[in-house]
Amino acid sequence: MADKSIFITGGASGIGRAVAHYFGERGWFVGLADINEPGMEETAAGLPAGQFSIHRLDVTDREQWKQVVAAFGERTGGRMDVLFNNAGIGLGGPLQEMTDDEIDRSIAINFTGVVSGTRAAFEMLRDTPDSCILNTSSAAGIYGAAGLVVYSGTKFAVRALTEGLDIEFKPYGIRSRALMPSFIETPILDGGLTGGNSSVRDMIAEAGMEITPVSAVAEAAWEAVHGEKLHTTVGKTAKKLAFAARWMPGRLRKSLGMARTVPE
Question: Where does the record place the Ketoreductase domain (predicted)?
């Protein structure tokens, strides 16, 4: 049995897969959770034999959370060094053009799922010395993103949750950290935008912004778990946004407004 363990939601692809491999290569036991079972099997194929577990999990289902956390604990002797709340969806488009279902799903998966996971794993984290909650926020959680306001709102909420939990859970020996990546090379970029035929990837290309390799997020996750920084930005866009939001918010707001036009 590995000395340390990490439980990863959204472990079937993208950031979750990259982080699973990065920690697994360093001797950690990795718990993979997702609704995409074939994807988790593909992730597991890159992990050391016997050093992982697979759990089908819909992060919006609180009862499933309780069951999979208990199952993970059976494999690790009740230990969870890191809870990586990573599962998310990237639905976007103008607010007035999004459907009720799209809005509700975004909030349920991107934010409520993080809250539910944290509550379900609390006792195991509390009973593991120097444990850490790592949440995937976003560069969209640094400054509101027009055309992605619901997504951006959920990522601001994750950021706030992370900040509050780092204070609230400190007496229990649980640290809280947030990853704030910009646009990362993952399948989420191929998601469509409400009200049009373009994808998030198309929007990025049109805006002339860069796409950061997913390996950079895996490295940042390791540094976040082992470091003192509350928020870890990943990618040039995220770092530029963080700087501008702090030192020149008025100019940032103006530039973002000029980049948006109202459809005719």
Answer: 4-170
